[in-house]
Amino acid sequence: MKIDNRPNLDFKNVLIKPQRTTITSRSEVNLCRKFTFPNSQSEWEGVPIMAANMDTTGTFSVCKVLATYKILTCLHKFYTLNDYQMFFCQEKNKDNDIENIKNYMVVSTGIGEKDFINLCSIMDNISGLKWICIDVANGYMQKMISFCKKVRERYPKLIIIAGNVATSEMTQEYIINGGVDVVKVGIGPGSACLTRLKTGVGVPQLSAIIDCADAAHGCGGFIIGDGGITSPGDMAKAFGGGADFVMCGGIFSGHDENPGEVVEKLTQNGETKKFKYFYGMSSEHAMKKHYGQMAKYRSSEGRFIKVPYRGSLGDTVEDYLGGLRSTCAYVNAYKIKHLPKCTTFLLVTQQLNTHLVE
Ligand code: 5GP
Question: CB burial class (10 A; 0-12, 13-18, 19+) of residue 175?
């Protein structure tokens, strides 16, 4: 047994220090970033935010909205070729810009044989898709690297994301030996996640981002800070800590564009509140929905949550983009890419004054 006693930080442990700035308006800030990826050598430009590949957020309807903001959507891995074909057919009939939507669409896969067959059927039959996300809860499994290599051999030019991990050596392993372009970082920070409770395993997300970003950048790769974003401020801290992309589930749930009905509940003081359901992909609910049952040897590592209904997804996105622009203005970062070098984190014991909050 070893003890690592370096400080380990979460978003709530820090604030970003303001500094002298020449930015006079938030409109001067550019949230788009252009990337050239190390293994595929492909390029992509957009706002480096992603919707999580959960079946409540990684959907075609969410993708359509986020594409208008140049934001990526990691579609969930249960979509088949037929689902993709039907979606594109509908969009074509509505005269929508399909190529634009494809640019912001990431196709997800697990690492089983059936997953690989499903992935290849989608990538081989639909032209113009650029992104693949190889996703397992525990990215430390040896099998992951060999699966990533197999996907890389088959698709040398596509941008490959893989994860999840939360430490530097595994980040480098993916980029150097797995042929991966972008490593997904986050073990346990998610809003619908129970891993830390059920296993005791995890790394505080800001420290995971700082360590993994440093490791990835050292070998020409990139990382996604995946999970734990509860506010625009958290998102700014993730970028400030070195995340090249930020992936979000919970904050993109509960809207008109997410699947499921709006549920009304009467509260104790007689008010009616509206909710939608959101759940982890390892939750018992998700397991039963996609696999018909939850295997006996597993314990549920995901929650089933009622989230407040929040109307249109576009309003939430604009709130987040506005917050990010404002952070950039406070620290003199004209581009989102400049945030890490403009960021000094202050270790704090309090974030907000909640004195008058009910
Ligand atoms: P959020 O933005 O909601 O805080 O986090 C989203 C991330 O949580 C996802 O991208 C994924 O990495 C993670 N996640 C989704 N479902 C589950 C689950 O059931 N268990 C765990 N441990 N993590 C999950």
Answer: buried
Which atom in ligand 1 lies closest to the alpha carbon of residue 252? 2
Sign of CA dihedral 213, 215, 216, 218: positive
Sign of CA dihedral 269, 273, 276, 280: negative
Q: Which two tokens stand for residue 132?
A: 């693949």
The residue assigned the tokens 């800590």 is 241
Q: What is the DSSP letter of 17?
A: P
Residue 236 near residue 339, CB atoms below 8 Å = yes
Strand partners, 264: 274
Q: Give the bridge partners for 278, in sequence order.
A: 305
Give the bridge partners for 266, in sequence order. 272
pTM of the model: 0.97
Determine which residue's CA is closest to atom 24 belonging to ligand 1.
Answer: 193
Among candidates 231, 357, 251, 354, which has minimal Cα distance to 307? 251
Residues within a 6 A CB radius of ligand 1: 52, 54, 137, 164, 186, 190-193, 195, 226-229, 247-250, 280-283, 301-302
Determine the Cα–Cα distance for residues 268 and 266; give it in Å rounded to an integer. Answer: 7
Residue of 63, 74, 148, 193 marked active site: 193
Q: What is the pLDDT along the chain (358 residues), one digit of tens a residue?
A: 999 999 999 999 999 999 999 999 989 999 999 999 999 999 999 999 999 999 999 999 999 999 999 999 999 999 999 999 999 999 999 988 999 999 999 999 999 999 999 999 999 999 999 999 999 999 999 999 999 999 999 999 999 999 999 999 999 999 999 999 999 999 999 999 999 999 999 999 999 999 999 999 999 999 999 999 999 999 999 999 999 999 999 999 999 999 999 999 998 889 999 999 999 999 999 999 999 887 777 778 899 999 999 999 999 999 999 999 999 999 999 999 999 999 999 999 999 998 888 7
Catalytic residue flag (residue 74): no
Q: How far is the CA of 121 from the centre of ligand 1 (A)?
A: 26
Alpha-carbon distance of 46 to 194, in angstroms, equals: 32
